[in-house]
Structures are given as structure tokens and as C-alpha cells.
Design goal:
The protein is mainly alpha-helical. The chain is built from 17 helices and two strands.
Length: about 475
């Protein structure tokens, strides 16, 4: 008789059982959970910065890392240059997938979200420039309100819009990916002061080697992970923001399904997940559950007071950021979509209505993660203005999230009502009535049902009148 298996003793912070681990990883891959973690980290940063400002500043500005490699960075820089590179690596994979198999693979389908993304960056920049110039403020922050936060925006959409068309999420995802790509180009072009040519050439050589190894189908994480780290380190030392390396590496992965060896399925060849899908599946929990929340924790801590909040609406730079996110993003995304549909061959997805697009445009004003990053780069020489810009980003993102939530909830209620009407089955035959409206037998059955209900109402009314009459002996 075999001996009973002994249960492994529980270990504090040990390895989770397989079902719990899979459930946790699947939860972290959902936009809802990622958005909630990001929101919780931002709230924790605000509480920490406002209850122990000196302690928060000490941690954020503490430098660690090897100085000989040019990586003696503050904790905040490790979060924005290191952890956020993981987020943009995943964003680069999403962009590659959209270009190869998604909405961006054909010009006609990509026109609307691409034009919407470009207008959604140009109009907020213009709003900021006009506001700052009118108040005599600095124009260096023109790019701060141009960014849309993918994690937050998709998280809000997932929580609020449970009955909204799937096409709306695809539109928002494509728009946000293009927006992130343009934000990276803005960072690389406008916020790179000095360039170390040797380090930049070395990073480019590593990218080429990465691409060659991929196309030679060389396998093994022990090859690609060290090479990616070297590419990132060289990019940091080149003067270009490290998130550019993350996007570039993500764009190099293959998005076409890879065939499995013959004999592994019921057919000769069974298409397996693509290389990009596999890597994204592995890294998304790390990005959503660790990288982005830690970035928010070490970068969203702003000392908020009545004076600081009032300053957001009185200083031209911060007012420009708030107006750019709330009004500029909404007007730019909606106006760009309408103009492209009106004056080009592009057309809006038939599953969407213009109120849906307007609600999504308001959602684009959530610029939290990337807007904070650009704000740091734009006002790096002015710590006080940097802190005020962070406060403005938080205010603008919160207002946009609340406005979008109200609009999306209204649209969600409308679609939920339509869904209930489509599933209505008055005659109880198992077929929704919407599919039988042109059937004469259906109308006959409905007339019989209505007549039976009317007869029942008349009978109940007669009983009520008889019971309410005078008592008799």
C-alpha cells in the first residue's frame, strides 16, 4: 500500500499553489486590476507625500546603482527610466500587433484612430500654448497634456462600460498606442538635451543584433534578456530617455503565429501563439502589477494644500495642463475623428455612435503616467514648477476620468437597455422576439398573449369591485 503523500508545510511568502498563482497572473493581465493598482499606488504616494513629506523626499531622491556604468540614479529615476521601460516594451508589442494583425494593418481602418490620436495631441498642445502665452508663462510644458494613459483609460472603460460595444475598446486601444508612440518621439526629439554618440551607436548596434537573433530564430531568454539590459543601459547613458529602448525592442518581436511541429495537433500544423503574444503574456503582469504602480508611487507624490490646488488654476502653466487634458483632449480626439469621417474615405465602425466617440474622447484626457514623465522632463530645472505640474496632471486626469465615467455610464445604460430588448422573449418560445417581428404567426401569438392578459386584468378588476362592495347578511 503506497504511503500517503505528506503535505508540504506552508512557508511565509513562499511559492503560491498553481491555481492561485494562475488566478493572480490572469487578474494582473486585466485592465481593470491594472488600473485599480495604479490608482491605489497614486493615492498611496499622495498620502505619503502629505503626511511624511521629508521621508518621501528622502526615499525618492536616494541614489543607488553603479556609478562606473553611469547608472547611479535616484529611486525616482530608476522608476521612470527602468520600470517604465517595461511598460513601454509591452506598449511596443501592442503597437506591433496592431500594425501587423490589428486595426492599423490597413490604411482605411487605421485612419480614424490615427487621425484622432494626432489631433488629440495637437489640440491640447495648442490649448496649453495659448493659455501659457496669455498668462506670460513658460511654453516648455506644451507636451505635458498631449499624453493618454493606456492603463488608466482602459481600466475605467472596463469598469464602467460593461455593455459597451467591443469596437469602442479597440478604437481606444489603437488610439492610445499611437498616442504613446508619438509621446516617445516627442521625448526623444524635444527633451534630449545632450547626446552621447558612442553610447547611442552602441545601443543601435545592440538593437540590430537583437533583430538579427530574432530572425535567425535563436531561442533562449538568457540571450535576449542580457542583450535587452545592455541596450537599455546604453540608451540611458546616451541621453535619450530609456523608454525609447523599450518601445524599439517591443517593435522587433514577431507578431505572426508560429507553426508547431508536425504531430502536435489534429492537423499537420497547428498555429501556436506568436512570439510577441507569448512575451506579452509573460510580461503584462509584471508591467501592470509592479512597474507602473511603483512608477506612480515614486513619482505621483505631490504635497497638496489649499494654496497648491488654487495655484493649479491661477498659474498659466498648470492651468494650461488642466485645460489641455480636459478640454483639449476631448475636442481634439472627437474633432479629429469627425473630420476624418467627414472629409476622407474613412468611416466610423457601424457598431459605434458619435456619443460613444465623445465619451471615449473625454477618457483620453487621463494622461497620468506619461504626462507625469513629460512634466518631469519639461521642468527638470525648476523643482517647484515640476511639483505644481504633477498636481495639475492629477487634477486634469481626475476631472477627465469623472467626466468620462458619467458619459460612459449613460451610454452603457443605453446599450444595456438595447441588449435587454434584443433578448426579450414575450411568447416564451426560446427565440428572441426581435427575430420574429416579421413572422405573421408571431404577431398572432402576441395578440393572443395580450388578449389573455387583458382578460386576466378584467377578471381581477371584477373581483376587486365585488370585494369592496357593502357587506350583506
Amino acid at each position: 500500500m503506497p504511503e500517503p503523500r505528506r503535505r508540504r508545510p506552508a512557508v511565509l511568502l513562499g511559492r503560491l499553489p498553481l491555481p492561485e498563482r494562475n488566478a493572480l497572473l490572469d487578474a494582473l493581465r486585466a485592465e481593470t486590476v491594472g488600473g485599480l493598482l495604479l490608482l491605489a499606488a497614486a493615492a498611496a504616494a499622495l498620502i505619503w507625500a502629505n503626511t511624511a513629506q521629508r521621508g518621501y523626499g528622502t526615499v525618492v531622491h536616494h541614489h543607488v546603482g553603479p556609478a562606473a556604468l553611469g547608472l547611479h540614479l535616484s529611486v525616482a529615476h530608476w522608476a521612470s527610466d527602468g520600470l517604465l521601460a517595461v511598460f513601454f516594451f509591452v506598449a511596443g508589442i501592442e503597437l506591433k500587433r496592431e500594425l501587423v494583425t490589428g486595426e492599423l494593418r490597413t490604411p482605411s481602418a487605421a485612419a480614424l484612430p490615427v487621425v484622432a490620436a494626432l489631433c488629440g495631441m495637437a489640440v491640447p498642445a495648442g490649448v496649453y500654448a495659448v493659455t501659457a502665452a496669455a498668462g506670460g508663462g513658460s511654453l516648455r510644458g506644451w507636451a505635458v497634456p498631449t499624453a493618454t494613459d493606456i492603463a488608466f483609460a482602459l481600466g475605467v472603460l472596463a469598469v464602467i462600460g460593461t455593455a459597451l460595444p467591443a469596437a469602442l475598446r479597440a478604437f481606444l486601444l489603437t488610439l492610445a498606442v499611437v498616442d504613446d508612440l508619438c509621446a516617445i518621439l516627442v521625448i526623444a526629439i524635444f527633451f534630449t538635451s545632450t547626446v552621447n554618440v558612442a553610447a547611442l551607436v552602441g545601443a543601435a548596434a545592440c538593437l540590430v543584433l537583437f533583430w538579427l537573433l530574432l530572425h535567425a530564430r535563436v531561442r533562449g531568454w538568457y540571450v535576449y534578456v542580457p542583450l535587452a539590459l545592455v541596450t537599455w543601459a546604453l540608451t540611458v547613458n546616451s541621453g535619450i530617455h530609456a523608454t525609447v529602448a523599450g518601445v524599439a525592442l517591443g517593435l522587433m518581436l514577431r507578431c505572426t503565429p508560429r507553426p508547431r511541429p508536425e504531430g502536435t495537433g489534429t492537423t499537420a500544423e497547428v498555429a501556436g501563439p506568436s512570439q510577441a503574444e507569448h512575451v506579452e503574456h509573460l510580461l503584462r503582469p509584471l508591467s501592470a502589477g509592479l512597474a507602473v504602480p511603483l512608477f506612480a508611487l515614486f513619482n505621483a507624490g505631490v504635497a497638496v494644500s489649499g494654496t497648491a490646488l488654487s495655484g493649479v488654476f491661477t498659474r498659466p502653466e498648470t492651468l494650461g495642463v488642466v485645460l489641455g487634458l480636459v478640454a483639449g483632449k476631448t475636442a481634439g480626439i472627437f474633432g479629429g475623428t469627425w473630420a476624418a469621417a467627414r472629409f476622407t474615405r474613412a468611416s466610423l465602425n457601424p457598431d459605434l455612435a458619435w456619443p460613444d466617440v465623445f465619451a471615449m474622447a473625454a477618457l483620453g484626457g487621463i494622461g497620468f503616467t506619461v504626462a507625469l514623465l513629460i512634466g518631469e522632463l519639461a521642468f527638470a530645472s525648476d523643482p517647484a514648477l515640476t511639483a505644481e505640474t504633477k498636481a495639475a496632471v492629477l487634477v486634469g486626469s481626475v476631472v477627465s476620468a469623472l467626466l468620462a465615467s458619467v458619459l460612459l455610464k449613460l451610454r452603457d445604460t443605453t446599450y444595456r437597455r438595447l441588449s435587454e430588448d434584443e433578448e426579450r422573449d414575450e411568447d416564451g418560445d426560446g427565440v428572441p422576439d426581435v427575430y420574429e417581428e416579421d413572422d405573421p404567426a408571431y404577431h398572432l401569438r402576441m395578440a393572443e398573449i395580450l388578449e389573455a392578459k387583458a382578460a386576466e386584468h378584467r377578471r381581477l378588476a371584477q373581483l376587486a369591485r365585488r370585494d369592496s362592495g357593502p357587506d350583506t347578511i
